[in-house]
Amino acid sequence: MATCELCGKTAEVVTADIEGVELKVCSHCTAHGIVKQRVALPMAS
C-alpha cells in the first residue's frame, strides 16, 4: 500500500497522467486522468 499523491488516501496506487503530470493515485482518483501503469509494490519478506 502507498499514499495517493492526489487525495492522501493509503491504498493500492497506479501511475496516472492527470493534467499533464504523472502521479501515483488511488483507484478513486484515476477518474481525473488516464492510467499509465500499475505501480509494482515490493514483496514482503
Question: Helix and strand string, N-terminal first?
Answer: EEEEE
**Low-pLDDT regions:** none
Taken as a percent bin, the fraction of beta residues is over 45%
Radius of gyration: 10 Å
- Shape descriptor: globular
The structural domain count equals 1
For the sheet with most strands, the description reads:
3 strands, antiparallel
Q: What percent of residues adopt helix (DSSP H or I)?
A: under 10%
Terminal CA distance: 15 Å
Spatial sequence of strands, sheet with the most strands: 4-3-5
Mean pLDDT: 89
User: How many helical elements?
Assistant: 0
Q: Report the oligomer.
A: single chain
Helix/strand class: mainly beta
Number of strands: 5
